[in-house]
Amino acid sequence: MTTNPVPRILNTLRSEQATSPALVWYGPDSERVELSGRVLDNWAAKTSNYLAEELDAEPGSTVELDLPAHWKTLVWALGAWQAGCQLALSADSGAPVRATADHPEPRSSGEIVAAVALPALAMSWPGALPAGTSDYAAEVRSFADTWAGPEYGDEPGAALAGGPGAEATPFTSLPGLEDREAAGAVTLLAPAEAGLARILGTALAVWSAGGTLVLTGAGVEATERMLAAEKVTARLGA
Predict the structure, then answer these.
(1) Which residues 6+ apart lie within 8 Å of 39 measured at CB?
(2) Does residue 84 sit in helix, strand or coil?
(3) Rounded to an integer, what distance in angstroms lies between the CA atom of residue 123 and that of residue 140?
(4) Half-sphere exposure of 45 (CA within 13 A, CB side)
(5) pTM higher than 0.85, yes or no?
(6) In which order are the strands placed within the sheet that holds 86-88?
(7) Which of the two ends of the chain, N or C, has the fewest CB atoms closer than 10 A to its terminal CB?
(8) In order of start, what are the domains of the chain with their CATH numbers?
(9) Residue 92 pLDDT > 90
(10) Do 36 and 62 contact (CB within 8 A), yes or no?
(11) Distance in angstroms (rounded) separating the CA atoms of residues 107 and 113
(12) Distance between CA 230 and CA 99 in Å, rounded?
């Protein structure tokens, strides 16, 4: 995956996996969210359009994910990659755009911040936001269900931005499943403890193979009942 695989993956999700589960999330307080391929693609498209139209993100821009391992974080990753952006998983990159679940105050005068309320049913950020900070939950639903921009899948691009003194990470070097071709159409369990970078790479591998990713939040136990109910066939070690 030297070039950006996300446009091809999203096309597969909305066509071949439209009604079957692509992403299942288990969060705290017994929260379970299931997204079919079509729904996941719609969320990604809305987020891509939101990034481009509301946050002024451009191809090649870096978007920092100041977010935990969560289904909305994967939506943000797909949306940013579809829009031709690269991701940063720490503040070291100095990204001009940041999505955050905890720190909505801009860290510099030029930083563009999107506050992301994580509960599935949240329609807005719970409380007041600093001037200039965008409320993702309140605004993203108004954007189109299809990506309005060009496709960036044929161009070499970085998946993750490099920090100070470090090179960017291409899609082919994302950590995750060691043998992506052998992943098969699995239902794979990914615990938050595996780390966001590994989860991102593994998610792309699983979706490329037509599989389902079951993501559990930090501290959420994968019970035998859960594994059986989701028909989990593989697990990503923490």
Answers:
(1) none
(2) coil
(3) 10
(4) 21
(5) yes
(6) 134-135, 112-115, 97-100, 62-66, 86-88, 158-160, 169-170
(7) C
(8) 6-235 (3.40.50.12780)
(9) no
(10) no
(11) 9
(12) 30
